[in-house]
Structure formats: C-alpha cells, structure tokens
Amino acid sequence: MRLPKQRRIKNKTDYHKRLKLLKSGAPRVTFRKTNRYVIAQYVTSREAQDKIEFGITSKKLKNYGWPDKFDGSLKSITASYLTGLLMGKEIIKNKMKTPIVDFGMTRVLSKNRTFGFIKGLIDAGVEIKCSEDHFPDEERIEGKYMKEDFSKTFKEIKSKIEKSEVIFSTKEKKKEKKK
To answer: What does the buried/exposed string (b/e) look like for 80-118 if buried means 16 or more CB atoms within 10 Å of the residue's CB?
Structure first.
C-alpha cells in the first residue's frame, strides 16, 4: 500500500498541478487568503526549488490610506483588487516576466476575491489571459457592498497606488538592512 505525500494529506499541495506549473518554466504569482489578510508572492522556480522574488500582503494597504475601522476587511474583494494592483505595479516597475497565476489548493469560483486580485493585476498592466465574465462587479470591487460605503476611500487609495513610486520588495528591504 502506498501512502500519499504528507503535504497532500494535509491538503496543502496538489502535486499534479504543481508539476504542470513547474514544467511551464514561467514565474508564478501565488495568491493566498488567511484569516486576516490576502498574501501575494512573485515566485520563480529552478530545478523544483521555489524562490520568492517579492511578496505583498493586504496589510500594506494601510500605508496608502486604508482606514483602521475597516481592518477586518483586509481580506475582502476590495482589498484583493488593490493588492493585485500593488503587485502588478511592482512587476511592471521591475520589468519582470509575465507570470502565471497559481491559486494552489484554493477553490476557484467566479466573481470572488481571487478574480478580484487578477483584475487588479490586469488593471496594473500585467498581461494575463482571463475572461471578463469571471471578474466581480465594479460595485463589489469599489466596496459599495460593505457596511459603510467604501467607494470614496477606494478611489483615493487606488489613485495613491497608481501615482506611487514607493513600492515594497524584499530586495529593497535587504539593502536597507545592510546599511
């Protein structure tokens, strides 16, 4: 009797999907949701060893004016879209190769936060093929569905991100630590 691998038993890795992604040779953008935040990482692989080039969490949105009273919404569709926009700006700024989106073991359902994240990447200028039918409605992306109307704050944060030159990456952090 052959037992499945440990990470498969714990429902963390789909090895069939991972093998396909690795064989493509293209870098990946991973998207994960925790209980509080949304995490996105730009990952390159060489000989089945992953290297995270940089990562962004929705916690960074606080630097762009995300209000404290909406801290519980840092894993929402709105936060996912803005995190995707931040990630896309970083990819474009550093002139990195166009990535493949890696959802991992996340269920992929239309009009949810994963597709909000992809829409943010596309709006930033990253060329990813995805049908418009899967994206959430503009009202949901702008945050009109939240307890309080978030659309005004959304537009302010989005304009700050689009104008911003200061975007965080692990390479910049390492340089700052050495100084």
So the answer is: bbbbbbbbbbbbeeeebeebbbbbeeeeeeeebbbbbbb
Contact by Cβ (8 Å): 57, 120: no
Give me the CATH code for the 14-170 domain, please.
3.30.420.100
Question: How many residues are there in the chain?
Answer: 179
- Cα(29)–Cα(36) distance, integer angstroms: 20
Amino acid 170 reads T
pTM: 0.86
With b for 16 or more beta-carbon neighbours within 10 A and e for fewer, the 144-155 pattern comes to eebeeebeebbe
Q: Are strands 28-33 and 100-102 parallel, antiparallel or unpaired?
A: parallel
* DSSP-assigned states of every residue in 84-144: HHHHHHHHHHTTPPPPEEE-TT----TTSHHHHHHHHHHHHT------GGGSPPHHHHHTT
- Distance (Å, rounded) from C-alpha 86 to C-alpha 60? 9
Mean pLDDT by 10 residues, the chain (179 residues): 85 85 92 94 92 95 92 93 95 94 87 95 94 94 88 93 68 53
Q: Are 106 and 144 in contact (CB under 8 A)?
A: no
Q: What are the structural domain ranges in the chain?
A: 14-170
Closest residue by Cα to residue 101 from 86, 82, 87: 87
